[in-house]
UniProtKB/TrEMBL annotation:
Residues 1-24 have a biased composition (Polar residues). It comes from Phaseolus coccineus. Residues 572-588 have a biased composition (Gly residues). One of its GO terms (molecular function) is RNA binding. Residues 1-83, 536-556, 570-595 are annotated as: Disordered. Residues 379-530 form the Helicase C-terminal domain. Gene3D superfamilies: P-loop containing nucleotide triphosphate hydrolases (3.40.50.300). Keywords: ATP-binding, Helicase, Hydrolase, Nucleotide-binding, RNA-binding. A motif (Q motif) lies at residues 134-162. Its EC number is 3.6.4.13. Residues 134-162 form the DEAD-box RNA helicase Q domain. This is RNA helicase. It is an enzyme of class 3 (hydrolase). Residues 40-51 have a biased composition (Low complexity).
Length: 595
DNA sequence: AAAAAAC
């Protein structure tokens, strides 16, 4: 096992004081940006790679000095690998993957139907709602951030950005009903980054905590590890050369490396709830400096049983209360559980609901085929063979196959491999390493078939997925929407094939409705199935298609609806398919603006 | 019913 200064710094706290050769009280406390504002004081050192150095001596004059320079007489503990800030745009292998389309050959944004943006229904409510903007230029985000926006090739803000960013920049709390793929990440990242940059120079209340505790200024919670990783990658692009540091922490991965990253400084912490609770209990992270809190996919997190952890993090640790921080709550839907979360976590919030952008586009051709359980494998094989013959198989044509169970995923993967279709799988029984390897291998086209459970259904942005196969359909139409949303991205066309049989009876109606609304060809047999289906009601039923995930319940004092699931309560107007042009809303160059 | 998530 390798022993480095970083390890020493990580594993031994008290002797840090001894290691210091300054008189400053050596607080292994992260120095927030506003203490780093006045150019680095002398911080160069003679670099000796292995020997422990004084903690407050930085080794890199450039990027590093933004982070490590001691200020106001108390040092930081920036031991360890003094890496320069890696250019998240320059990383050809990984970071470039999702940005690749944006930075590659496809220059110019021809074919983007910006007008489609205007068709997307948006609803806001609350007191004194800050007005939306139409361009990024209208928002004063600062030059560094603007440059990153240009690097990302974001041309025009998406609806959730147009409305949400001014709200957040205006200092207001935000309850946003928006789907994955609506541009949420940028919507909450831009105000956070901009706010942190702005706060530089403010007086610091010195955190009175003990050793090795870090004090992020912003916290972003998300339900799955991969989603956290993805948000982190996005946020790093947005914060490149802004002096704002983003760190991600999630379970299943060695904690020491994450601790080391944290100790190098953290302004924005992106985390899954479990690992964060762990870090909080170890007192390695304190939330008392939190100025911004963003909860992504909140309904998902509640579905997954995270409410206790989330309430613990937000209410029972040392996070400043609502009003003393700025909170952004994102959720695809607005059931009463989320409403109560909103009223507990938010202060005089603005409610924002954005139509189901990006989820269903006419770029996705949806097919449903009646396949008995026993025929599914051979049927899948037929599809894959056909794809291969058409020369679609390969790096540019990835196939994502969804199944319901982890076991089923393993079994199918195994079977595919045995039949000479290189496949891998991602699900919760695999180690995090395996999961990330699988994702990478899929993205690069090494194994162009990925068998997945719903862990991969939401939020993940995998470019070049040409075909989503619902080998087993989900019970919830929303999950279906999210699954097929893994294709038809980046302005490319996508195909979604579903294997339907009697086991999916409860989905017949909502699926038929959904497809109809999306101007898809609904097979005759499915319509008949839907018509005689007794399972049409309940949660899966879309009430003619909700344009929003929810509505600001505060406006409707008389709201009673049986007090039940406030699920899809849009008006009886067309939902998904309304414009049919959502897909056109983003083109090759601006794809990830929607994620 | 299954999936996800800390050690």
């Amino acid at each position: 096992m390798r022993t480095s200064w970083a390890d020493l710094a990580t594993n031994s706290a008290p002797e840090n004081a001894g290691a210091s050769n300054t008189t400053a009280p050596l607080r292994p406390v992260y120095v927030p940006p506003h203490l780093r504002n006045r150019g680095a004081s002398a911080s160069a050192s003679t670099e000796s790679s292995s020997a422990p150095r004084p903690l407050n001596v930085s080794t890199d004059n450039n990027a590093r000095s933004r982070w490590g320079a001691p200020r106001n007489g108390w040092g930081n503990r920036s031991g360890g690998w003094d890496r320069r800030e890696v250019n998240p745009f320059g990383d050809q292998e990984d970071a470039a993957e999702e940005g690749a389309a944006a930075f590659g050959e496809e220059q110019g944004n021809t074919g983007i139907n910006f007008d489609a943006y205007e068709d997307i229904p948006v609803e806001t409510s609350g007191e004194n709602v800050p007005p939306p903007v139409n361009t990024f230029a209208e928002i004063d985000l600062g030059e560094a951030l603007n440059q990153n926006i240009r690097r990302c090739k974001y041309v025009k803000p998406t609806p959730v950005q147009r409305h949400g960013i001014p709200i957040s920049l205006g200092g207001r709390d935000l309850m946003a009903c928006a789907q994955t793929g609506s541009g949420k990440t940028a919507a909450f990242c831009f105000p956070i980054i901009s706010g942190i940059m702005r706060s530089q120079g403010q007086p610091l209340q010195r955190p009175p905590r003990g050793v090795r505790t870090v004090y992020p200024l912003a916290l972003v919670l998300s339900p799955t590890r991969e989603l956290s990783v993805q948000i982190h990658e996005e946020a790093r692009k947005f914060s490149y050369q802004t002096g704002v540091r983003v760190v991600v922490a999630y379970g299943g991965a060695p904690i020491n490396q994450q601790l080391r990253e944290l100790e190098r400084g953290v302004d924005i912490l992106v985390a899954t709830p479990g690992r964060l609770v762990d870090l909080l209990e170890r007192a390695r992270v304190s939330l008392q400096m939190i100025k911004y809190l963003a909860l992504d996919e909140a309904d998902r997190m509640l579905d997954m049983g995270f409410e206790p952890q989330i309430r613990k993090i937000v209410e029972q640790m040392d996070m400043p209360p609502p009003g003393a921080r700025q909170t952004m709550l994102f959720s695809a839907t607005f059931p009463k559980e989320i409403q109560s979360l909103a009223s507990d976590f938010l202060s005089n919030y603005v409610f924002l609901a954005v139509g189901r952008v990006g989820s269903i586009t006419d770029l996705i051709v949806q097919r449903v085929e009646y396949v008995q359980e026993s025929d599914k494998r051979s049927h899948l094989m037929d599809l894959l063979h056909a794809q291969r013959e058409n020369g679609v198989q390969g790096k540019q044509a990835l196939t994502l196959v969804f199944v319901e169970t982890k076991k089923g995923a393993d079994a199918l993967e195994h079977w595919l491999c045995r039949n000479s279709f290189p496949a891998t799988t991602i699900h919760g029984d695999r180690t995090q390493q395996e999961r990330e390897l699988a994702l990478r291998s899929f993205k690069t086209g090494n194994t162009p078939i990925l068998v997945a459970t719903d862990v991969a259904a939401r939020g993940l942005d995998i470019p070049h997925v040409a075909h989503v196969v619902n080998f087993e359909l989900p019970n919830d139409i929303d999950d279906y929407v999210h699954r097929i949303g893994r294709t038809g991205r980046a302005g490319k066309k996508g195909l979604a094939t579903a294997f339907f049989n009697d086991n999916n009876a409860s989905l017949a109606r909502p699926l038929a409705d959904l497809m109809q609304e999306a101007n898809q060809e609904v097979p005759e047999w499915l319509s008949r199935y839907a018509a005689r289906s007794t399972f049409g009601g309940g949660r899966n039923r879309r009430n003619g298609g909700s344009r929003f995930g929810g509505r600001d319940f505060r406006r409707e004092g008389s709201f009673s609806r049986g007090g039940s699931d406030y699920y899809s309560t849009g008006k009886n107007s067309g939902g998904y398919g309304t414009s049919g042009g959502y897909g056109g809303g983003y083109g090759p160059g601006v794809t990830s603006a929607w994620d």
